[in-house]
């Protein structure tokens, strides 16, 4: 399976996926391209160190649709079959979502539907939850909204601030994102509306 | 510590708390009264079997404030210091909340702030979360909103419906509610805004 990864920053989840592909934890797959909307995203250098082709597609003064069309074109040119957002800081247009139906993933550092959007760790700390975590989900046109593939719960401790909580959650993000991509690459999941289940293994499979 | 418990139905969390008090898991405490707003709540009979005094205070055609004032009066008459809602199906008025500042608890069968209100299990199933759970929290005038004391995460499985999920969560509700009441009875918690922390134990305590 050819994977394309979108980043805007350091892309630590991109690195986790790329290393899992390299090490065979995500089998029969290849990270075909890493696309950044920021020319100075630190993740670009890391991708090159991992031997992955990188492309920068900045928004400039274009509409979201025009920007997304160029990104989709780059992904298609590289034969991408699965798109992983890894700290990509933009909402996708309807056109982008339609170009990869049920084939765009995102990870969010909370147990959705709690604490959508920016500063999820800070939101969790402010609310005073005792359990937060991370969510790997399919991407639709709404913010942090698509069907959920996998969640991991992470304890919030008394002395936590957004920084210490984010450091505890990110470890689980890497593991969760790799596991979700592996399941999709292995064809193990079935989607029914908002529910994403594990395919029953039969002798015919 | 004298505990008063409010129910509207079968009150399984009421039974869990009452048994924990009886067995010493919640030490130095006493369930002084169980109040129901429904004369036919099945929990009333269970409370009597446990040797607990019961009072029925129906709403009749009164305002919420008048109804609550009578309940508060019953609780005060029984010397209640901590109020536990256990399947009590009404929002409390501001007057009720003010009568027991930081001394009213509720349990909700989700990881708040997700899935507030009625049919929390069904909401979780419909949304397609992979992790749900339960939350013990202080009660304020807003629905399922006050500061969180304790949460327990519970896995949602592929074949789950609201019924099977509720049966898996209720076990954790009983344990979580008992543990939260124990902590409060033992004076182990400190409240800072929305954050409820464990008091640091020092030699002066």
What does this 3D model show about the protein?
The structure is a homodimer of 205-residue chains. Chain A is built from 6 helices and 9 strands; from the N terminus they run βαβαβαβαβαββαββ. The first copy, chain A, is of the alpha/beta class and 205 residues long. Chain A has a single domain (2-198), classed as Formyl transferase, N-terminal domain (Rossmann fold), CATH 3.40.50.170. In chain A, the strands form 2 sheets. The first copy, chain A, has a 7-stranded mixed sheet, sandwiched between helices. The first copy, chain A, has a two-stranded antiparallel sheet with strand order 8-9. The radius of gyration of chain A is 17 Å and the shape is globular.
What does the secondary structure layout of this molecule look like, with pairings?
The structure is a homodimer of 205-residue chains.
Chain A: E1 2-7, H1 12-22, E2 30-36, H2 43-49, E3 54-56, H3 64-77, E4 82-85, H4 94-99, E5 104-108, H5 120-127, E6 131-138, E7 148-155, H6 162-185, E8 189-192, E9 195-198
Parallel strand pairs in A: 1-2, 1-4, 2-3, 4-5
Antiparallel strand pairs in A: 5-6, 6-7, 8-9
Please summarize what this structure is.
With 205 residues, chain A is an alpha/beta fold. Helix content of chain A is 34%, strand content 24%. The two termini of chain A are 19 Å apart.
Highlighted features:
6 helices, homodimer, 205 residues, two-stranded antiparallel sheet, Rossmann fold
By CATH, the architecture of chain A is named: 3-Layer(aba) Sandwich
Q: Biggest sheet of chain A, in brief?
A: 7 strands, mixed
User: In one word, what is the shape of chain A?
Assistant: globular
Enter the CATH topology name of chain A: Rossmann fold
Order of helices and strands of chain A: EHEHEHEHEHEEHEE
Low-confidence stretches of chain A: none
How far do the termini of chain A sit from each other? Answer: 19 Å
Whole-number mean pLDDT of chain A: 96
Please count the beta strands of chain A (DSSP E, at least 2 residues each): 9
* Count, helices of chain A: 6
* Side-by-side strand order of the widest sheet of chain A: 3-2-1-4-5-6-7
Helicity of chain A, as a percent range: 25-40%
The quaternary state of the protein chains shown equals homodimer
Total domains of chain A: 1
Fourth-level CATH superfamily of chain A: Formyl transferase, N-terminal domain
Structural class of chain A: alpha/beta
Class of chain A, according to the CATH hierarchy? Alpha Beta
Q: Report the sheet-strand fraction of chain A.
A: 15-25%
